[in-house]
Write a structure and sequence with these properties.
Blueprint: H1 3-19, E1 42-46, E2 50-55, E3 64-71, E4 76-81, E5 87-91, E6 100-108, E7 111-112, E8 118-121, E9 128-135, E10 139-144, E11 151-155, E12 158-161, E13 164-172, E14 178-184, E15 189-194, E16 200-205, E17 210-214, E18 219-223, E19 231-236, E20 242-247, E21 251-256, E22 262-267, E23 272-277, E24 283-288, E25 292-297, E26 303-308, E27 313-318, E28 324-329, E29 333-338, E30 344-349, E31 355-360, E32 366-371, E33 374-379, E34 385-390, E35 395-400, E36 406-411, E37 415-420, E38 426-431, E39 435-441, E40 447-453, E41 458-464
Antiparallel strand pairs: 1-2, 2-5, 3-4, 3-6, 6-7, 6-8, 9-41, 10-11, 11-13, 12-13, 13-14, 15-16, 16-17, 17-18, 19-20, 20-21, 21-22, 23-24, 24-25, 25-26, 27-28, 28-29, 29-30, 31-32, 32-33, 33-34, 35-36, 36-37, 37-38, 39-40, 40-41
Length: about 475
């Protein structure tokens, strides 16, 4: 026999003999004690409507996660998250009046570990204030990210000395830390928008300036302003590549978000009050005080169609399914157009005054409109009023949640009303001290964001309900 073959056989026998003296344990074998692979390294950080899962043991980076959720009544629900990320977030289901306990296991293939951490979450009382913050001056513009992780507001200017003005910007970072910074400006903001990636803020001011900051307060762009006219609306494009603005100089402008250069501009015959960007980011529709509505190609600014309404345009909204355009007019009329052709599909009206607020449910089946003290929910398909109601005073913000089963109304009355959109019943009345603006549901509808002003102090508050 070859001497090299004998040597290899001898070494293999020695290895097997030496290993047989100690027990080898698969760390993902269900029989193995939890302490042998430290499932405690799987950490929870529980928020009001999300749980952060953090896996610290990098030696087992190819592990996947199985989360067991147990209701207080004893029923179990399993959710497998097919991910090896070190940290990620998942939504807590809408509370049903019971608490939840969570338990984590890791697995590879069919091998499931022993249980890891257990975390118990108790129900949150309806209308609970999650957190609030105060500005020492009146807030003029505010925006909230869809998930509520970042909030930005701008307050009024303060005259430090003749010709020297100061305005404060407030923000809240993804980590939850409040941030604020001061900048010199000649005018407060009339409009503000948070970028889709939550990294930037754009503000359009009363004197025509447009400024862009990152979320730590560094001003990264200052766009050229025109004619000292108010910027009525600014917004980032869906892909975060462009910034759109419209204003009292009758112009709609599109800017490059990288270097601030002007991509294209189109002129209306009167003040451009508002615009909306299509869900596919292919076009923008703008409306003015001279009754005109235009559809423009997003990249080139080419006109795609135009339409003239009966009265001045106050608000317009493109449906999430990219099929319809809702228009609110100064006389309380409401029109719904085919977004591809610009042809009217149906019309409705409010008798109480101007239609200021429009909002679609995510499935584009319901349309909420509000004017003066009246609100209505319409069937988008045929224009029938599904349900309607009134408020004690003027509505100044109205929204519908993604699932379309709740609306929120705020304004010049002593409560924010959360209303069931199927039966019109008020499910929750959140007390406030003065006018409410900028209502926004979080993406999962568990939180409500708003700004409140009493001309002395302004604050934003997050509320949650069952």
């Amino acid at each position: 026999m070859n001497k090299w073959l004998l040597l290899i056989l001898s070494l293999n026998l020695l290895t097997v003999t030496s290993c047989s003296d100690r027990e080898w344990k698969n760390p993902f074998d269900p029989k193995v004690s939890a302490s042998t692979w430290s499932p405690g390294d799987l950490d929870f950080y529980v928020r009001r409507d999300t749980v952060e899962l953090n896996w610290k043991n990098r030696a087992v980076i190819d592990a996947h996660y199985k989360i067991q959720r147990r209701l207080e009544n004893g029923s179990d629900v399993f959710r497998v998250i097919d991910s090896t990320e070190q940290k990620f977030y998942f939504d807590i289901p809408e509370f049903t009046g019971s608490g939840y306990s969570y338990q984590i296991r890791s697995y590879i293939g069919d091998n499931l570990s022993d249980p890891g951490n257990i975390v118990t979450i108790s129900p949150i009382p309806a209308g609970t204030v999650w957190w609030s913050a105060l500005s020492d001056r009146r807030i003029t513009a505010a925006d909230f990210s869809d998930d509520g992780s970042f909030i930005a507001v701008i307050d009024e200017i303060s005259v430090i000395s003749p010709g020297n003005y100061e305005c404060m910007v407030y923000g809240k970072t993804v980590s939850g830390e409040p941030v604020s910074w001061t900048y010199s400006i000649n005018s407060s903001a009339a409009s503000i928008d948070i970028s889709p990636d939550n990294q930037s803020i754009v503000a359009g001011h009363f004197d025509g300036q447009i400024n862009v900051w990152n979320n730590t307060g560094e001003r990264v762009l200052s766009l050229e302003h025109f004619n000292n006219k108010t910027i009525n609306k600014v917004q980032f494009s869906i892909d975060n590549q462009l910034i759109l603005s419209c204003g009292s100089d009758s112009m709609l402008r599109v800017w490059d978000n990288t270097d601030g250069s002007l991509v294209w501009a189109q002129k209306h015959t009167h003040i451009v009050k508002t615009f909306d960007i299509s869900p596919d980011n292919q076009y923008v529709i703008s409306g003015d005080y001279s009754k005109n509505i235009y559809k423009w190609d997003m990249q080139t600014g080419a006109e795609m169609w135009n339409y003239q309404s009966g009265r001045e345009i106050k608000v317009l909204k493109i449906s999430p399914d990219n099929q319809k355009l809702a228009i609110g007019q100064i006389n309380g009329n409401l029109s719904v157009l085919d977004v591809k052709t610009g042809l009217i599909l149906w019309e409705g009206n409010h008798t109480g005054g101007m239609t200021f607020f429009l909002d679609f449910s995510l499935d584009s089946q319901k349309l909420l409109s509000a004017a003066s003290q009246e609100w209505k929910i319409w069937s988008v398909g045929d224009g029938n009023v599904l349900i309607h109601g009134n408020t004690p005073d003027f509505i100044q913000s109205a929204i519908i949640n993604r699932s379309g089963d709740k609306i929120a109304l705020g304004g010049q009355f002593s409560n924010i009303f959360i209303i069931n959109s199927d039966n019109g019943e008020t499910e929750l009345a959140i007390p406030v001290t003065d006018y409410v603006f900028n209502l926004r549901f979080s993406h999962n509808s568990y939180k409500l964001f708003y700004t409140e002003s009493n001309n002395i102090l302004c604050k934003w508050i997050i509320n949650t309900w069952e």
